[in-house]
């Protein structure tokens, strides 16, 4: 009896009987002349062990994968292959080495799905002549050397630090622009300056109650900040622009002389 997921291939005196494979259901054969082989048509999985590949940018890594396939033509399969799993394993390894040699390390790490699809198409073009249909392939894991892992970690950290500095610079730029606009507004509105002054005094008294603040009148501040009081201070300097009169030699210093 042949199950629904099985097919039977009959050889009579060593020759493959013409016609398609038998099954499912009952089949008959001659015990003395015929031999039969059952083929499972269900989906099969094959784990591909780690193997080394060389990338386009000359990095060496180890990759393992999984291949999903099914027997599509039992007669062609039995007459073509003796060891199905070994043939598929070696084919997957050589195909991945050939395809990954044209891709960089970054592409392999970021584009696993597209790489697996390319491997599947390349495998299916070969296994179809064996009577095998490759359903899909997947890259399980990628092993990098320790030195390469450290280099990638340092590069990623440098990129993160650069991004943080860019964000901080953008924030400082926006803050400086806001401060410039606020300064322009305060310079044109004296009342706003006084309100800001009072708000600062209130903040200091709230946050640091032990701090003693001696407020100065605004008139005194304006007096100190006026341009006329910043020239020479309180010292009266002589006017050097007025010419000095020469001494008269005929003029006597004393009436006694």
From TrEMBL:
PANTHER family: BAND 7 PROTEIN-RELATED, PODOCIN
Localization of this protein: Membrane
Major subcellular location class: membrane
The keyword Amino-acid biosynthesis appears for this protein: no
Family of this protein: Belongs to the band 7/mec-2 family.
Residue span(s) of domain Band: 1-156
Source organism: Neotoma lepida
Keyword Ribonucleoprotein found: no
Keyword terms: Membrane
Short name of one Pfam family: Band_7
The organism's place on the tree of life at top rank: Eukaryota
Quaternary structure annotation from Swiss-Prot or TrEMBL: Interacts with nephrin/NPHS1, KIRRL1 and CD2AP. Interacts with DDN.
GO CC, any one term: cytoplasmic side of plasma membrane
Listed InterPro entries: Band-7_stomatin-like (IPR043202), Band_7 (IPR001107), Band_7/SPFH_dom_sf (IPR036013), Stomatin_HflK_fam (IPR001972)
Residue spans of biased composition, Basic and acidic residues class: 248-257
Region: Disordered, residue numbers: 232-257
Name the UniProt record assigns to this protein: Podocin
Function: Plays a role in the regulation of glomerular permeability, acting probably as a linker between the plasma membrane and the cytoskeleton.
């Amino acid at each position: 009896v042949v199950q629904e997921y099985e097919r039977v291939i009959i050889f009579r005196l060593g020759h493959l009987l013409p016609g398609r494979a038998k099954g499912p259901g009952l089949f008959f054969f001659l015990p003395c002349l015929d031999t039969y082989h059952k083929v499972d048509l269900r989906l099969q999985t094959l784990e591909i062990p780690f193997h080394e590949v060389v990338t386009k940018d000359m990095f060496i890594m180890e990759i393992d994968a999984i291949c999903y396939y099914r027997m599509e033509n039992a007669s062609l399969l039995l007459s073509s292959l003796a060891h199905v799993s070994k043939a598929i394993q070696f084919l997957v390894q050589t195909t991945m080495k050939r395809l990954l040699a044209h891709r960089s390390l970054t592409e392999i790490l970021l584009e696993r799905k597209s790489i697996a699809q390319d491997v599947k198409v390349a495998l299916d073009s070969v296994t179809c002549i064996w009577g095998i249909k490759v359903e899909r392939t997947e890259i399980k894991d990628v092993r990098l050397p320790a030195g390469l892992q450290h280099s990638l970690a340092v590069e990623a950290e440098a990129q993160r630090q650069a991004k943080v500095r860019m964000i901080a610079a953008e924030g400082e730029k926006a803050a400086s622009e806001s401060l410039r606009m606020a300064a322009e507004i305060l310079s044109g509105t004296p009342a706003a300056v006084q309100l800001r002054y009072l708000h600062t005094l209130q903040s200091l008294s709230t946050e640091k109650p032990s701090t003693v603040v001696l407020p100065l009148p605004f008139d005194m501040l304006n007096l100190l900040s006026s341009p006329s009081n910043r020239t020479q201070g309180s010292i009266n300097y002589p006017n050097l622009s007025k010419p000095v009169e020469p001494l008269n030699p005929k003029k006597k210093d004393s009436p006694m002389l």
